[in-house]
Design goal:
- This protein is of the alpha/beta class and 340 residues long.
- It folds into two domains: 212 residues, Rossmann fold (3-Layer(aba) Sandwich), CATH 3.40.50; 101 residues, Alpha-Beta Complex (UDP-galactose 4-epimerase, domain 1), CATH 3.90.25.
- The chain has eleven helices and 13 strands.
- It has a seven-stranded parallel beta sheet, sandwiched between helices. A two-stranded parallel sheet has the order 7-10.
- α2 links the parallel β2 and β3.
- α1 packs across α8.
- It is globular, with a radius of gyration of 19 Å.
């Protein structure tokens, strides 16, 4: 049985990926410093899979603690989620983002070299594309100058990985560029649990419906889109989690075409903010209190993926609908708030 390290494994995407890995028969060890997660997520994972992953509360910025971990654990691969991810916060505190998102990657890759770990999956983002020249976005689209330190850390991280793979031909890495993950596990045992004010649309919607937020702001209705609101590619988090397992199996099985590969992970369909709002109201039966406000600086008009490469080369495609994602997100919110 292969053992996989999942950094940030108690976070939103990380926890769903731990479940997907365990369901595929992998042994999992989680590193998380609980800066944006709760240790109780372990209970949720265990309730779904009947297996509790090993857990180490480690801050990956502390190099000595990273070294000690690898002295105590042998692993066959790493899926690296642990990173700060709020665009606005990164503008206000860029040094935190450069330290947390770059130092940690370097320390992990150093341990890969020292301990002969050859399989590495990296959590990247469609933010590397900026305002796209053409839609849908393929992996060949140019990487634009980053509009935030967060986006820049994803670009630099991919450059670090590319350079490291070039220097170390035994290392196999895949960078997965996500679009917009939403939803929760169908069991409602795990889901998105942002600390503070949600940075993403769907948890803000569900918190507004649950009465935690007074009103949802829709930033602009005058974009050149069918209903005037921004368009994004919303992917069910369980579909996204399963893609990590497929990517890992690809490199463990040495099916990769190069030792550094990039895949877009999305549905290939764009949905506007107002379409998501309407879909949520239909699924939940709740009437959302929302208002149109001014555009938000830095928001891209429309972003959605060309998924052909992931579908054909990686052998993965989404299975779940927007409605399923919103229904699961609402079930999770109600459970967390005791509204069942």
């Amino acid at each position: 049985m292969k053992r996989i390290l999942v950094t940030g494994g108690l976070g939103y995407i990380g926890s769903h990926t731990v479940v997907a890995l365990q369901e595929e028969g992998f042994e999992v060890v989680v590193i998380d410093n609980l800066s944006n997660s709760e240790v109780s997520v372990l209970d949720g994972i265990e309730s779904i899979t009947r297996k509790r992953p090993a857990f180490e509360n480690i801050d990956l910025r502390v190099k000595k603690d990273v070294e000690d971990f690898f002295d105590n654990y042998s692993v066959d691969g790493i899926i690296h989620f642990a990173a700060s991810k709020a665009v606005g916060e990164s503008v206000e505190n860029p040094l935190l983002y450069y330290e947390n998102n770059l130092h940690t990657l370097v320390y992990l890759l150093q341990q890969c070299e020292q301990h002969n770990i050859h399989n590495f999956i990296f959590s990247s983002s469609c933010t590397v594309y900026g305002e796209p020249d053409a839609l849908p976005i393929t992996e060949a689209a140019p990487v634009k100058e980053a509009v935030s330190p967060y986006g820049n850390t994803k670009q630099i991280s991919e450059e670090v990985l590319r350079d490291t793979c070039h220097a170390n031909e035994r290392l196999k890495a895949i960078s997965l560029r996500y679009f917009n993950p939403i939803g929760a596990h169908s069991s409602a045992a795990i889901g998105e649990l942002p600390k503070g004010t949600p940075q993403n649309l769907v948890p803000f919607i569900t918190q507004t419906a649950a009465g935690l937020r007074e009103q949802l702001s829709v930033f602009g209705d005058d974009y050149p889109t069918p209903d005037g609101s921004c368009i994004r590619d919303y992917i069910h988090v369980v579909d996204l989690a399963e893609a990590h397992v497929v990517a890992l199996q690809r490199i463990i099985g040495e099916k990769n075409d190069a030792n550094f590969e990039i895949f877009n992970l999305g549905t290939g369909r764009g949905s506007s903010v107002l379409e998501v709002v309407n879909a949520f109201e239909n699924v939940s039966g709740e009437k959302l209190n929302y208002k149109i406000v001014d555009r938000r600086p830095g928001d891209v008009i429309a972003v959605y993926a060309d998924t052909q490469k992931a579908n054909e080369v990686l052998g993965w495609k989404t299975k779940r609908t927007m409605e399923e994602a919103l229904d699961s997100a609402w079930s999770w919110e109600k459970k967390v708030r005791g509204l069942d």
